[in-house]
Write a structure and sequence with these properties.
Helices cover 46% and strands 14% of the residues. It has 413 residues and is of the alpha+beta class. It has two domains: 11-176 and 214-258, no CATH class; 264-408, no CATH class. The strands form two sheets. The chain has a seven-stranded antiparallel beta sheet. The chain is elongated. 36% of the residues are buried. Mean pLDDT is 88; it is low at 1-24.
């Protein structure tokens, strides 16, 4: 699995050893023997990189008689493809399925201290052969590319769909018995990196808070692995069998990698809020309004830049669960534009009108916090208050200036 703005570590492997493996498989039809096994490989999370927080899934086909041990990986992409970054942000990233020798695949995880669990499927020879043939066809250059979607179509859902399509019967998965949303599951994965959770909570919107089905939860490798545990296969001949023949822990994860991190976004926000209050008090008392404008410019540029990202994702990307997004109320593109005009005196009335609207909007947003149909992170509050306070102080500063101007006018005799 990969989140937005991620790179899969297997990219290098797939374009070095992996490509030759795919070519060999595609050139000849491999007939499996009774010793063949098809299994699911699930890697645990690795919190040293954001892209690895969600784990990973692949399919292994091993036949010792045929000297075959291949891993099919649906999590590959070409970082050097044209306009990659723009298409990635837009949600038009094309991923690939590639085959790599098992020894190279497992060695990479071993070096990183990541755990890998293997679930061997209880399949007959025809089912194994059909799955291998389907994976081989998928790996052909004309077929291997697909449009990746983090929640709906990724490296975990693709193997699940392949297995489900080519077994003889219907799989009855183990239920989770939990009421969960996409945001809940993302939080489970990124909780060890609070800044990652903070950023993801900003860009995913209200749709991420809808209750999802067990099959929708399979976008996470760990949930797919749990779904297979205890699952059964109801055959077309009305017989039933356990889908998983055995489960093996190929690599033990390094426990030291799972240590939680402090809630830095909240602490940082509180520091920003305290600084904003102190600066606002000094600026108002000392009438250092130019200093206030400098601070406002920096604050609103950052907020406006965040708003531009949200606006782009909402209206121009095809990413799931990013529209509607109520965070655009306190992070909106207008802040970036107006921040560049704070020192234009001829627009002072217009700017102060904006500050009044912004102050009222943010105050209403905070008061209606529990009524907004989107789960909002508590860590957002000090950042929202900082922006709200600065808009409010600009209103007070204007009143103070107008009042001083009234006193300076000559009195009629």
């Amino acid at each position: 699995m990969r989140n937005l703005l991620s790179i899969f570590f297997l990219l290098a492997i797939s374009f070095s050893q992996g490509l030759s493996s795919r070519t060999d498989i595609a050139k000849e039809s491999i007939l499996l023997t009774d010793t063949a096994q098809v299994s699911l490989l699930t890697s645990s999370a690795w919190n040293k990189e954001i892209y690895a927080l969600f784990g990973h899934t692949a399919i292994r086909v091993c036949d010792t008689t045929q000297h075959l041990d291949i891993v099919f990986n649906y999590g590959l992409f070409d970082f050097n493809s044209p306009n990659f970054i723009f298409r990635f942000v837009k949600g038009e990233t094309f991923y690939m399925v590639g085959a790599v020798q098992y020894k190279y695949y497992i060695e990479e995880y071993k070096e990183r201290g990541v755990g890998v669990t293997e679930q061997v499927f209880n399949l007959n020879l025809k089912e194994k052969q059909d799955i291998l043939d389907a994976l081989t066809v998928n790996s052909l250059p004309e077929n291997r590319v697909y449009l990746y979607n983090f929640f709906y179509d990724n490296c975990a859902t693709r193997p699940r769909d392949i297995i489900g399509k080519y077994v003889d019967g219907k799989i009855e998965y183990t239920p989770t018995n939990k009421v969960q949303t996409y945001r809940d599951l993302v939080h489970e994965c990124v909780g060890v990196q609070p800044w990652a959770q903070f950023g993801i909570d900003i860009i995913i919107g209200a749709d991420a808070d809808k209750v999802i089905t067990d099959r929708q939860k399979d976008f996470l490798p760990a949930y797919l692995m749990e779904a297979y545990r205890g699952s059964t296969l109801k055959g077309s001949d009305e017989t039933s069998r356990n889908l998983i023949l055995s489960e093996n822990q190929l690599l033990i994860p390094d426990k030291a990698l799972s240590l939680p991190m402090p809630q830095m976004p909240l602490y940082t926000g509180c520091i920003l809020l305290a600084f904003t209050l102190l600066l606002s008090l000094v600026v108002y008392k000392k009438r250092w309004f130019a200093l206030g404008k400098v601070y406002d410019t920096l604050l609103f540029i950052v907020a406006g830049a965040g708003g531009c990202v949200i606006f782009f994702l909402m209206f121009f990307s095809i990413h799931p669960c990013v529209n509607p997004n109520w965070n655009i109320v306190w992070l909106n593109p207008l802040q970036l534009i107006l921040a560049l005009l704070f020192f234009v005196k001829s627009l002072s009335k217009f700017i102060n009108c904006y500050h009044f609207i912004n102050f009222v909007a943010l105050l209403g947003f905070l008061l209606a916090w529990s009524l907004i149909p989107q789960q909002l992170e508590i860590a957002f509050i000090p950042y929202i208050l900082s922006i709200c306070i600065r808009s409010g102080m600009n209103i007070l500063q204007l009143k103070k200036l107008n009042k001083r101007a009234d006193y300076s006018l000559p009195r009629p005799k």
